[in-house]
Amino acid sequence: MDMWKFYDITHRNHLICNPTNGEKLDHLVGELRLPAGARVVDIACGKGEFLIRLAEAYRVDCLGIDLSPFYIAEARKRLEARAPGAEVAFMEMDGAEFQPKEPHSFTMASCLGGSWIYGGHAGTLEALTRLVAPGGWVVTGEPYWLREPCEEYLKILGLQKDVFGTHVGNVEAGEKRGLELVYTIVSNVDDWDRYEGLQWSATSEYARSHPEDQDLPEIMRKTGEEKSAYLRWGRDTLGWAIYVFRR
User: Fold this and answer.
1) Mean pLDDT over residues 104-111, rounded?
2) Is 213 domain-assigned?
């Protein structure tokens, strides 16, 4: 089964493709106070919600990069509907392969929930730092362990324990690379419940309307497994935060 098809189905009802609610995302947009003409790049931009809100709030030049053809198509539709004249472009490509014409040429570089692209949180911080100018913003969204994950939970997720750190560890990873933490936005259980629950409802709707899809048994199996893991362990084990650093 195509991975991007799976995420398109499970996340088709999501406005924001991570456990952050709209109010918190708006708060992040306001805290950045980007100057007119600022250049922004968002790696693993998903459906482009963060960049579109930035474009609605500021006169900025934005670039969103994502490997999913489904998400990029949706991002372009949203942009056309909400900010058709904005300086926002979306590119379908592997974010790890993105090379700007000039290093350190962006006012802000972000990656909210796509650290696997760079091999983890530390690699993401290093990659984004290479993109931004001195004094610019490095913004990451990253999970962290609330408590020790059990082996059964890790097995279902297909992860090793060291793929994520702690909340303070995520902060220290930036500070070790010369970044100054200026803000965090931490998701709560309600944010997680909505993020996970929207996946269950979207999958259920898809199953009822596409019973002929040959991938449906695999989609239902995987979603059901992840639902069970979240309810049994994930809700109390995995956190999420957005980290706002200044270079």
Assistant:
1) 97
2) no
